[in-house]
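Records of this kind hold a single protein each, on a pair of labelled lines. With that in mind, the following record should read easily:
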Amino acid sequence: MSSRERNKPNPDVAKKLVQALTASSDALFQLVLNANEEVLFNTLKNPHLSEEHLLALLKRRDLSTDLLDRIHQRCSKTLSHRLILALIKNPATSDFLARSLMPHLRLFELVDVCFLPGAGADKRLAAERNILQRLPTTPLGNKLTLARRATANIVGELLKEGHPTLTEICLSSPRLKEASIYQFLTGPKATAETISMIARHQRWQHRTNLRQAILRNQKTPDVWFTLWLPNLSLPIIKQMFSRQRFNASQKHLIQNELKKRCGG
């Protein structure tokens, strides 16, 4: 076979390449399903190509990053919300392009991206960062929904706000980490009410580190000292008493426990 014959394009492909440039709107719906990427690039030059064709194309999971970049370039001045969302959700979209489009998404669309199957870590983290940046201006109702649906980092940030209703929902989130609760207990927003929520919570009340953090907080109600001090080892109680500041009532309870342990 001569080199000319080897380089001769496949007649079927050549036909599809031409069709992609000139096809009607109806025919384009079939062409955007074509396996040949050159054909797909040619469809982007077709004057009949519409948003509906692009949305059908972006549902595919076998596209190249180059093709997605070209789609963005073609529509950059008239990019609709639906196309932005479809581009971000496609696994082949570059992290750079996805990050540039994230600010255009709605809050709970960003949450969906955080859990998008096949999405890379950078894309998920970018969505999470966008949510965190919006938290200061997010209404309480939306925060309550976020506490139920969002990632561990977002739930941890919501917990830090110290709102009792929000705290209750955060504590029940399966994604909340113990470290986030510990940070909250040692931070400025913990109150007697929210501390007691943690102390009563079935999932968290038996965690040793959290119990000790609760007993080191000056805002902790006396009842938790009464219930938990008898179960702490003497060295831990002595260490707490020597290193922490307590209010008068807490100090009295600890001193009484030490007297019991040390024989008066």
About this structure: The radius of gyration is 30 Å. The chain is about 65% helix and 0% strand. The mean pLDDT is 92.
